[in-house]
Design a protein that fits this description.
The structure is a single chain. By secondary structure, the protein is mostly helical. It has one domain (44-146). Helix content is 56%, strand content 5%. It has helices at 44-56, 58-74, 80-126, 141-146; strands spanning 131-134, 137-140. It has a two-stranded antiparallel sheet with strand order 1-2. Strand 1 (131-134) and strand 2 form a beta hairpin. Helix 1 (44-56) runs antiparallel to helix 2, helix 1 packs parallel to helix 3 and helix 2 runs antiparallel to helix 3 (80-126). 14% of the residues are buried.
Length: 147
């Protein structure tokens, strides 16, 4: 039975809305994974090799240092090891060139004296001497003229 106070088909009741989900912020950006190596700097390995070679083989170290410096500059980076290899390689290359030239000059001076002395000894033997003395040692003319 229905009474005017309670209708037969009651009006649907509104259900309260569910509470809104809380707003989350975006996850922070994490650095690269610890196991993954950073990208290699161009010319770094070559500059280490150039520095080592600049000490033992200066000309090779100088050339490799220049190549490493060019690679680093193309990548927009500075390379102190390559610069050190270039400086050390250049200084030691100049040192060895000067040393070689002075050594050759000294060798020519000493060698020239020896040749002159040998010529004088041979002339004395050809003039009829049986032996000649050179730097405190006596040489037989037979031995000198046989060679």
């Amino acid at each position: 039975m229905t009474t005017p106070e309670t209708p037969q088909n009651p009006a649907p009741q509104e259900t309260p809305a569910a509470p809104a989900a809380p707003a989350y912020q975006a996850a922070p950006a994490y650095p690269a994974t610890p196991g993954v190596p950073a990208p290699a700097e161009p010319g770094k390995g070559l500059s280490i090799a150039a520095l080592i070679l600049a000490i033992f083989l200066p000309l090779v170290g100088l050339i490799l240092g220049i190549v490493a410096m060019v690679q680093s500059k193309k990548a927009g980076r500075k390379n102190g090891l390559a610069l050190a290899a270039i400086i050390i390689g250049a200084v030691l290359t100049v040192f060895w060139i000067v040393f070689f030239v002075l050594f050759m000059i000294g060798l020519a001076a000493v060698g020239g004296d020896v040749v002159t002395d040998l010529n004088q000894m041979a002339e004395a033997c050809l003039a009829g001497a049986e032996s000649v003395e050179y730097m405190g040692q006596t040489f037989l003319c037979e031995d000198l003229l046989a060679n």
